[in-house]
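Protocol step 4 of 6: structure prediction from sequence.
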Amino acid sequence: MKDIKVIIPAFNEGDSIAHVVQELPKMVSEIIVVNNSSTDLTGENALRAGATVLTENRKGYGHACLCGMEYVAKQSKRPDIIVFIDGDYSDYPEELSKIIKPIIEENVDFVVGARAKALREPGSMTPQQIFGNQLATFLMKLFFRAKFTDLGPFRAIKYDKLLTLQMEDKTYGWTVEMQLKAIKRGLTYAEVPVRYKKRIGISKVSGTVKGSIFAGIKILGWIFKYSIK
């Protein structure tokens, strides 16, 4: 039986976080919610739902993910697989079983949950999200012959392979950094189509003009950085 831990970065997800924690499969050994400077009940609700709650006061998606990784690194027993999922309840937590299946059954290193159009609830992704994903994955295919179709945040990776990536992005470039480094390091990877629904609350990234622009700059920055290496 594989030891699976889940890291959930969460900023003001008080209304949704308990749903995510409670609906993750029981095969998970630990659910780690990183409370990223929330001003609501995110931490309290996650704790009541059964998660380990960490506090990261430096705002940023990557800061929260790195905080979770630092916590795991200090544990005496190393997990086999790390799963990342957002705290907004837009993904279906029970589909974790689908996400990890290629790792367990086919020895794939890294799996991304692809938010396939046929499985997305109408309106669950904003036009800027859809365009940004299409542009980013097109450029990744052009420059690196990548087969990714999405930058979906619901993803799983072998823990030892995650460490080799030496992740560093502190904000919105975290997902694309992981995918680019997986390609550059020669990791085997796969995509699994997953369902996607409207999130609870307003997105801090795609829900604002500033967030969308900043995320786009970060994502394109990582792609062009690696294209000239």
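Step 5 (inspection) to follow. The chain has one domain: 4-227.
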